[in-house]
Design a protein that fits this description.
about 425 residues; Rossmann fold; 2 domains
């Protein structure tokens, strides 16, 4: 059949179409926002504004754990920076710094309108989707640097997540191959790639080493999935919670923060049916350190929290077989198996729907087994390189970029715009 399109290709084409339509809509919105911003006094009377050398942007307070070590290192070195956040209660806003200025720039489109007019030599961010939807590259920002907020596959962002960054800071060699393959397939210019490690995991390990021993407590299982149709709560929902309540484990359910927005109806249904009790709790702590520390075993899917739990806290994981759908992600473009799914069997035991009636025994077996220690050590070597050095190496890289003359950064930004315009549609 000449008109046949396989489901994977069809899903990819549909995602691209949505992306193109979304970009067109947001382009019109951005023009209007820029006009409103200028008319409302967004620029000074002369139309000029002093350019910031280094800016940092975060779309959520939950990524303060990524940036806090970097901000501390900037402070230690006396490097001025502007920290911009889209969370009004970001912990950074309550801190007092000598060299880093922290500012709330509004939520949603208001934040992106500010970013689209930003003037800076270098901008560091953990937010994907630059120049894909409403967040556009500012012509007055010379260089965009991405730092991930997880330590696993770099191609696990929603499609085109990192395409228009100038540089990406990585935690493992295998991530380089994933990005280079995406660049080849999409005819993109090569980004600067630098392995620096994982800032928040370094800090978490320091906290763990300094923490007192845990008091005696009942066996605890943490359910911490990703969000979306392939996540545990979307796929198993009531069935997995009923199965866990039939065990002697205390249950902590920590949904992905995005679930509260994108899967609100599903979560509200589950929270109503399974309210907080002596056996089960719903956790929304901004800082996940304590909940990871007091849990004995983790049930997850493809979430990056797996590697926080196994590699920092050195504990096993039960990973659910959710038949992961790669189609919304950059990984859909790459034929090779994702590093996460190659690594999971070395870190713990799989969970299928058929295993739910015996989930208690499966959790016990996972905790008692010693065979996963070697797998955890191998995963550390592959995805948490340069342990303890991430903040210093990140700031080293930023200093290298800032050492360039401001006009060089500006011309780099202009070249990026030209390169994007020249890309095939």
């Amino acid at each position: 059949m000449l008109c046949y399109i396989d489901p994977g290709t069809g899903s990819m084409l549909f995602t691209i179409l949505i992306g193109v339509l979304g970009a067109a809509i947001y382009a019109l919105k951005t023009v209007w926002m820029k006009l409103r911003f200028t008319l409302s006094g967004g620029r000074d009377k002369t139309g000029k504004k002093e350019k910031t050398r280094l800016a940092i942007f975060t779309d959520s307070k939950r990524y303060w754990n990524v940036f806090e070590p970097i901000v501390a290192e900037l402070e230690r070195r006396g490097i001025p920076a502007l920290y911009l956040t889209a969370s009004p209660d970001d912990p950074a806003l309550s801190r007092s710094f000598s060299h880093v200025k922290c500012e709330f720039i509004g939520e949603g489109n208001r934040a992106f309108a500010r970013l689209n007019l930003l003037q800076a030599d270098v901008l560091l961010s953990s937010t994907p989707g630059l120049d894909v939807y409403q967040w556009k590259r500012s012509r007055d920002v010379g260089f965009y640097v991405h730092i991930p907020h997880a330590s696993n596959d770099i191609d696990c962002y929603r499609m085109f997540g990192l395409d228009y960054y100038d540089a990406v800071l990585l935690s493992g060699e295998y991530q380089i191959g994933q990005l280079r393959e995406l660049e080849r397939l999409r005819s993109l210019p090569a980004k600067e790639l630098r392995i620096v490690g994982v800032t928040y995991m370094d800090e978490m390990k320091r906290r763990l080493d300094a923490a007192p021993p845990l008091p005696a407590h009942e066996k605890t299982v943490l359910v911490a999935p990703s969000w979306g149709r392939s996540g545990i709560l979307s796929r198993y929902g009531e069935r997995i919670l009923d199965a866990l309540l039939a065990t002697d484990y205390r249950i902590v359910v920590r949904p992905h923060p995005q679930s509260y927005t994108s899967e609100k109806e599903m979560l509200e249904r589950l929270q109503k049916a399974y309210p907080d009790s002596e056996r089960l709790e719903w956790n929304r702590d901004n800082d996940n350190f304590e909940v990871l520390r007091r849990s004995d075993v983790l049930i997850s899917d493809f979430s990056g929290v797996i590697f926080d739990f196994t590699l920092v806290f050195d504990k096993p994981v039960v990973y659910a077989d959710t038949s992961f759908d790669k189609s919304p992600y950059d990984a859909a473009w790459i034929e090779e198996e994702m590093w996460t799914f190659e690594t999971l069997p070395r870190l713990g035991l799989p969970l299928t729907e058929e295993d739910l009636p015996r989930i208690g025994a499966l959790l016990d077996s996972c905790i008692e087994s010693r065979e996963f220690a070697e797998g955890r050590e191998r995963a550390r070597r592959e995805t948490w390189q340069r342990p303890g050095e991430a903040a210093a190496l990140t700031v080293d890289y930023l200093e290298e970029k800032l050492a360039k003359k401001p006009e060089e950064s500006s011309s780099a930004g202009e070249e990026k715009e030209k390169e994007k315009e020249a890309l095939p549609v």
